[in-house]
Amino acid sequence: MKHTRHTSFTRYLLWTQGLYFLITAVWPLVHIDSFMMITGPKEDVWLVKTVSVLILSVALPLLYGASYSTDYRLIRLIAISAASGLAIIDVWYYLEGVIKWVYLLDAFAEITFIICWCIANIPNSKPAGEKNS
What is the rounded distance in angstroms from the CA atom of residue 3 to the CA atom of residue 129? Predict the structure, then answer.
């Protein structure tokens, strides 16, 4: 029976993406002025904070998954769909001239997370319980 790499790589990925989402979500909630200094002025600060709360709600299950042994299928779906959506928005609205280039750095991070999730999902040929060499 094949299984995926739910070991240290998956947990590292969960910690990394979870903490990245946590930091980027909390930043505008704690200090909107420095956030806008880097990302550009915003007309609807309430909307920035709403998105922050939603990203925070994605960060929490990722950090939960990093902390506890669990079935990673749902957490993987949450992680990939959130990263995909954010990357698409970053690139689309940058190309439309709505947001600053700095959002392309976020798109790069999001695409990196997606690639890492694809790597983590590659089936292993070793039976469950047998250690990799």
Answer: 10
- Contact assessment for residue 15 and residue 63, using Cβ atoms and an 8 Å cutoff: yes
Q: Please give the structure tokens belonging to residue 4.
A: 């995926």
CA–CA separation, 48 and 128 (whole Å): 44
Instruction: Provide DSSP, 70-120.
Output: --HHHHHHHHHHHHHHHHHHHHHHHHTTSS-THHHHHHHHHHHHHHHHHHH
pLDDT higher than 90, residue 6: no
Nearest partner of 118 among 70, 69, 94, 83, judged by Cα: 83
Give the tens place of pLDDT for each residue, 23-41. Answer: 999 999 999 999 999 999 9
Instruction: Tell me: pLDDT of 57 over 70.
Output: yes
In sequence order, the β-bridge partners of residue 3 are 124
Q: How many angstroms separate the CA atoms of 127 and 39, rounded? A: 47
